[in-house]
Amino acid sequence: MRLTRVVIAVLITLVLLYVARNTSRGRPDDIIHTDHGYTFSLTTVPKITVGATDTLTVSISPRPDQSQRVVYRTTGAHRGKKTPFDEYTDIPAALIDSLDGMYGVPVTAGERGKREYYVFEVVDTTGATIARLTTEKGEPLFVKYIGEVPAGILVPHIVFMFVTVFCVVLGAVHALRVIRTGQHVHGMSFWITLGMLATLIGGYPFGFGMNWYAFGVVWEGVPFGTDATDNKTQLLFVYFVFVTLASLGSLTKGRYGRDTYPPRALGWFGLGAFVLMLAIYLIPHSIQFSATLTYTVCYGFIAFVLGLYLFGRLRYGRRAAEISDSRTAAA
Question: Distance between CA atoms of 204 and 218, rounded to whole angstroms?
């Protein structure tokens, strides 16, 4: 039975990590956009390592005639997304393949953590825009400049994230048993606590290192920033801490404190750790939300979890203490 649990946990862990990797916004996307009779086809280059050069290519159909040019219009690394298109810098795109109407321009990554926003355009002899490649929302595309993360930081980060998922999955398997029997909370709490510790180590010290080497920042979770990846880690960690503290009595077998909720309730909270992790892993890794939404969700979630813990401690914890005292007196 124990071997079966481990095998199930390993398989679910691999599936979740595979899904997270393949839904990441850091992977290339195929974009097809039609504007004024011209169809642009482009595979994005989401990131370029600092100091390296990559070529952005676009295929245009029908191919622009000799009186027209294809230009790469860019903000460079020091102007933001809201820069008007007419303030972009024009760079001629070279014809790479005349049969496919493919044009390209080399881009060299600058300072880590910066973004370069861009569009491709077909222009006439006066420089007026005939057709433009943007997203479906009419926004520019972008490429990020990232630094190279040393293996000594990257590998432990990945290992601890794997351990986190594995432990939480095993915790969820034990949680189902707790929900069914109302007993054996220790096993569930033990595995989720290990997952919490793995999140702490992999997501914070090694996460700080990942951020610093890749983007030149240390931490952008609330209240210091609105990065979705850092905030996902933070929300998971907060919830894991909650489950650990709520089941501290079972975890330590009564040596340090008491559980703050009945066993079956703790089982549902333990299962909730897996559900929350699943939901968070299904959110694309590099997606970004507005600052208002980010702060509202993060602070709201933290306040909810804190309130849940305090409610259990004040209500069930007091009741458990009274029962324990009455048993002691009777003995």
Answer: 9
